[in-house]
Design a protein that fits this description.
Elements: E1 9-14, H1 20-39, E2 51-54, H2 57-60, H3 64-70, E3 75-78, H4 86-99, H5 103-127, E4 156-159, H6 171-183, E5 187-193, H7 203-210, E6 214-217, H8 220-228, E7 236-238, E8 262-265, H9 269-274, H10 278-295, E9 299-302, E10 307-308, E11 311-312, H11 314-324, E12 330-332, H12 338-345, E13 350-353, H13 356-363, E14 369-373, H14 376-386, E15 393-395, H15 404-415
Parallel strand pairs: 1-2, 1-4, 2-3, 4-5, 5-6, 6-7, 8-9, 8-13, 9-12, 13-14, 14-15
Antiparallel strand pairs: 10-11
């Protein structure tokens, strides 16, 4: 991130830390910003703390982001949810229908968070030396910048959703959110993203992406897709997902978790929903577990990475755990912050993951990894690491062989460098 960070920063489109992939991106990015600020000589008393606009700041405070907030490294603000306020829901839908003002939804959504941004800015301005020039036109709650100041004084809005643009149902709100910050004079960055190249045929989506001041693609398939779609190379950077730099917590291993001799397993409801044959995917997992128990001295650790009620990894993993609990060779890892989960994953001898950031935790810890994937992010990351995603990623939509996990496991283990 080679940009000036001595200015107000907002991170938006953070879905909440109950998805530990989202937590890992936000955690790593906040630590990165603060490290770079120190290198750039920023004064923490007069530089606004980065503000994270979250789907649920209360959820974030139960994990690492809450600790970072206590340390003064960031601020957390919950965005408003129009579907939870009946009167606002009626008013804004009526207003939008009559006026066509789609941005009204975003003004409602980000109002509290924007107020938090202004409070933090004003706090820092009050602490600045006399004569410090304001970045915002005085007396206007949501003004644009006073453009007489250089671009380096422009506040920065970073979209940190990772693969948000991979989900067509999210794109309209992503476009409106981006417009919200552009209209208020923010420089905008799309950070650590993956985007299906075919989706770039949508002219509305492409127009939105071209309006970013810079885009950091986290893998080469997305990067090349953006380049081929006409986005200037000057606006594009290929950079690994920030979660590759997530800190690894020291962990006390539970009974039955043998360091270096335990296979970690992650399975998600999302992958099962996208599978061509969910029953076959589960059967392939069962065959793999039985293969490990029968043919190696490894134990099994089931590792959830998302614990939202709408998509809780613990449901399919608990089902598998109960089936093999009687062997005495399986353990279940309970919900923990992303850094702690990475601590457990780093102690595995092999890892099978459906959640992208569970596999990034494994990749970045040097653990041989098999991905059960469904989108460009899995294929792109594996291709950049290994030159090809064949055998390293099993696209769940195409799985037809209940022995697929075993075959890929054998292939990956044979690729390991020989110990000297």
């Amino acid at each position: 991130m080679n940009i000036n960070l001595n200015r107000p920063i907002i991170l938006y489109m953070h879905a909440g830390s109950g998805n530990h992939g989202c937590e890992a991106i936000a955690d790593s990015t906040i630590r990165m910003i603060n490290k770079l600020r120190l290198q750039q000589g920023c004064d923490p008393k007069t530089t606004p703390k980065p503000l994270i606009i979250s789907n649920d700041a209360g959820e974030d405070r139960r994990y690492v982001l809450g600790e970072l907030e206590k340390q003064g490294l960031c601020l957390l603000e919950t965005e408003r949810h129009i579907d939870r306020d009946f009167l606002a829901h009626v008013f804004y839908y009526g207003w939008r229908k009559v006026t066509g003002d789609k941005q009204s939804f975003m003004r409602y959504r980000f109002k509290d968070a924007y107020q938090g941004y202004l409070r933090e800015y004003n706090r820092c301005e009050a602490a600045s030396p006399k004569g410090h020039e304001s970045l915002l036109l005085p007396g206007k709650e949501e003004s644009s910048l006073n453009h007489k100041y250089a671009v380096d004084n422009t506040p920065l809005a970073i979209s940190i959703g990772g693969d948000n643009y991979c989900y067509p149902e999210m794109v309209p709100d992503l476009i409106l959110s981006h417009e919200y910050f552009k209209k208020r004079g923010f420089e905008t960055i799309l950070w650590g993203c993956s985007i299906e190249p075919d989706s770039l045929k949508d002219p509305g989506l492409l127009k939105d992406l071209m309006a970013f001041d810079h885009i950091y693609a986290r893998e080469s398939i997305s990067y090349n897709g953006l380049l081929n779609a006409g986005i200037s190379a000057d606006k594009l950077s290929l950079r690994k997902d920030p979660a590759f730099e997530l800190e690894t917590a020291d962990v006390t291993l539970p009974e039955g978790f043998k360091a270096g001799a335990t296979v970690g397993i992650n399975l998600s409801p999302m992958v099962l929903e996208r599978a061509g044959d969910p029953k076959l995917v589960k059967e392939s997992y069962r065959n793999f577990i039985r293969y490990i128990l029968d043919n190696t001295d490894n134990n099994i650790a089931f590792v959830p990475h998302v614990v939202w009620s709408s998509s809780d990894d613990r449901r399919p993993l608990k089902e598998l755990y109960e089936e093999y609990k009687s062997t005495g060779r399986v353990v279940f890892i309970e919900d923990n912050p992303a850094e702690v989960l990475k601590g457990y994953i780093s102690k595995c001898s092999f890892f099978v993951g459906a959640r992208t950031h569970s596999t990034i935790a494994a990749y970045s810890s040097g653990v041989p990894t098999l991905v059960i994937g469904y989108s460009v992010k899995s294929r792109g990351i594996a291709t950049d690491l290994y030159g090809s995603y064949d055998n390293y990623v099993l696209p769940v939509q195409e799985m037809q062989d209940p022995q697929a996990l075993i075959r890929s496991y054998d292939f990956i283990m044979k690729q390991r460098p020989e110990k000297s």
